[in-house]
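Collaborator request, handled under Task 6.
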Amino acid sequence: MTYSLNTLNADRASASAPGVSRFTQEIGLVVGAAALAFWLLALLSHSLADPAWSTTGTRAEVGNWGGRLGALLADGSYFLLGFSVWWCFFIGLRAWLSGLARWIRGYQGLDAGDATEDAASVRPWHRPWARRTLFWLGLLALLSASSVLEWSRLYRIEAMLPGHAGGMVGHALGPLAMQWLGFNGSTILMLAMLVLCLPRVFRFSWGHSAEVMGHTLDGWFETRREKREAVEDQRIGEQAAREREVVVAVERVESEEHHPTPMVIEPTLVDVPKSERVAKERQKPLFSEMPDSKLPQVDLLDSAPLHQAGVDSQTLEMTSRLIEKKLKDFGVEVRVVAAAPGPVITRYEIEPATGVKGSQIVNLGRDLARSLSLVSIRVIETIPGKNLMALELPNAKRQMIKLSEILGSQVYNDAKSLLTMGLGKDIGGQPIVADLAKMPHCLVAGTTGSGKSVGINAMILSLLYKADAKDVRLLLIDPKMLEMSVYEGIPHLLAPVVTDMKHAANGLNWCVAEMEKRYKLMSKMGVRNLAGYNVKIDEANARGEIIGNPFSLTPEQPEPLERLPYIVVVIDELADLMMVVGKKIEELIARLAQKARAAGIHLILATQRPSVDVITGLIKANIPTRLSFQVSSKIDSRTILDQMGAESLLGMGDMLYMPSGTGFPIRVHGAFVSDDEVHRVVAYLKEQGGEPNYVEGVLES
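Structure tokens returned to the collaborator:
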């Protein structure tokens, strides 16, 4: 049984009776505590050898802890009720605790008596006089039932008592109960009376007590269960740790046996070496105008971030071991021999075990990417010059590659060709530039959002940074009317940016006619290409000679020949152009691709739908240089590159560049250039070059 201040206070009529001071309550509590303590000592130290009311005693000195008065009190109590007198003591203790609770509540300023009285006044048996009557009736019934049970069942304890078991009450009521109810009947009835009277006297509820006991047992069982689970978890953890130590030891031995030499980690290129051009441009001029300032400055482009996250050696080592483990789980045993971290991906060179086919690893590319929680993994079956394969895994954080890094690099500055294009960086972080004159044409493919348009802008800006308008002219065909319209008005254009597909066909017709014209001219001049023609013109000008046009309409006074510029034709969406104009465009492109190289005319064809009806066999056969951004399927990758791999690229400028004459594509991370950068460069060129010098008849039929 449990008690609270409210439980002990439940039977009072009010918090404190009117006119009774707190001092009186304190006196009552002190006197009550002393009386209960004295009674307890007397009952505990009762002895039949002490002289008292019912016994003469056998010793002169009283052994009771309460002295003679204690002996008389204990003797009278046990003689009247037997051991049932302890019910009276506990009832007195409960009454004292109730008074203490009332005193404490009054000290704290808590007065719930009025509310209790008001609630109690609703029912008649809750009135004070009714509660007192029920209490005393319950007390009498409790003492009677206990005394009868003691007299009938515990008669052997009479030797410890001054009178009968159950005292005078039990001796008086016990025979009557036996006579009328019998031995078992009286026992059942007395037990029932005990069960009914105890809650009434002690102010508790069997249901509440059972609920509290249930909660206590539940808490105890829950605590025991948690302790058992904690012990079990600790045991399982220790067992797993021991097993892990064994596994780690075995793997360490296998690793040492499997890796007699440590994995080679190639150093990461931290910074791209800057060219002398960048250093000169960063110097502040002494005068407001510089004498040679037609080419745009690299400072017009945004610079790359100074600090970018890389891949540490611990991550490389851990990933290498993880690759070996995952492939071993798939039944393929390999050994990672080298790792080359780059700005976007990390390349792991692997050595397959004896008997492992390369196709097995290629077919496990997607499964390996899923097991490593990666978007995609590109598997390289053959590395030129090595008997190894390679896996290219994307880095957790890719670095930003800006076009200013490529155009400001020493590699781009040292390139002598006027058609040098900056593509981006390779997997090791080295700048990659390409010479359009050697390609001599480029076929570009990539899905929407793969970075194809940004790559086209980077190529065009690379040409603008390398050559003046007198050396390189552009013909831009933009069916989408959005991507290249920003270049409108620059001095390098042969004609305004073409957005009408009929005009596009006329422009290609003009290019074919210009090609034929240049071939005839070079044939008369005895040179093999446009570079030789321009060299001959420059040498003649240096000697002060004038070379006349052999096809002049006035042979007597032919007009002098001048240098001829390179012509670069950029078509942003080949599929749209072929869909509108038809087969005629394919024939024109095929003629230019076959013959225009020597005439200095070069093509950059881009499409987002690399299907066989767009990139026909005739076009592919004459354009060996391919550049593929991310495509949607293996079929598209085979169409543009004649092999798989482009479908596993990461997008955002990630590309495969296959130079002319090689069958092995190079993975390049394209340089990013924003629209603002393009606008700044175009504004600079317009300011330096003045009005555009369009050639008449380019777009006319």
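The cover message to the collaborator said: "The chain has 22 helices and 14 strands. Residues 206-258 form the longest helix (53 residues). Please let us know whether this matches your experimental observations."
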